[in-house]
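Minutes, methods subgroup
Present: GH (chair), OT, SY

1. OT presented the first of two proteins processed in the latest run. Sequence and structure tokens recorded below as shown on screen.
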Amino acid sequence: MPEGGLPMALATPLLQKDIQNSPTDSSNLLNSPVSKGFGTHLLVEMWHAPFSSLADAESVSSILQYTVSHLQMDSMEETRVNTFQFDPYGVSATATSSVLHILMHTWPEKGYAAVDIFARNQADAFNALERIKFKLNPKDLHVMELARGQLLNMEDT
């Protein structure tokens, strides 16, 4: 813990004024507008996915385009997909719009993909996950869900 006994998560500049007013009780921060409405963040690990789906940037780009296409129905906004091809294989990729952010890293030789999905709400996040899962078809999937803005109630952060 930093000086003063406060967990690191409480020492952000945005929250500093509230912390000084109530250094021992963070419950008022958890229910304040400061910590609400940041969206849902999924940390995803996919194992035993096909090498061919994970190995090249074109394949991963196609998967991300498919994933975000359902969120563009009400918007004229274009989602940006960027990829980086590793040599001889493996990809880092992002898909970014105002309502969804996806970051994917692949290790095709291990059949593994690490995916972060950050969305405006839980439904959009899990819809994106289902679309990625449909395209990658991993045999094993592990997901951790974070409601952003809520780390204040976790000890030792």
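2. SY then presented the second protein from the same run.
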Amino acid sequence: MNNTNIVGRIGSDISLKFLPSGSAIANFSIAVNQDYKDKGGAKVEKTSWFDITAFGKTAENVNNFFGKGSMIGITGELEQQTWVDQQQQKRSKVIIKLQSFTFIDKREQNNQQQGNYQQSQQQYNAPQQQMPENNHQMPIDDLNDEIPF
């Protein structure tokens, strides 16, 4: 089983792109804070960063409803990507392919962040959609052969 759940804050602006067919791909990162005590009893705060990729209508919805700093809960699948860099070195990283998301911030915070974010991202011309009335998971659309990995 390949499944992961994460709750954290979106740490960068969401990058929304469209394939020639019109299918959307969104990339963003999530910061997850972890607190623990070291051997001496001192509190230690650690932040882990996760790269997230969403496809189709899910990508468009994430772009419409969230922005940098938004709290989000996600469910996804881990995928290792590999490539050869410009120096001909093999490289790899693990991403999370988003399957569903949950609104974590209070509704007032989501609306404020959504409005601020959409004002700064008007060039995408994404269709306006209303925020769901309650926490709601949105499934990922069926993937097609155009995805480059």
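Chair's summary of item 2: The beta strands are 4-10, 15-18, 24-37, 43-55, 71-84, 90-103.
Next meeting: continue with the remaining queue.
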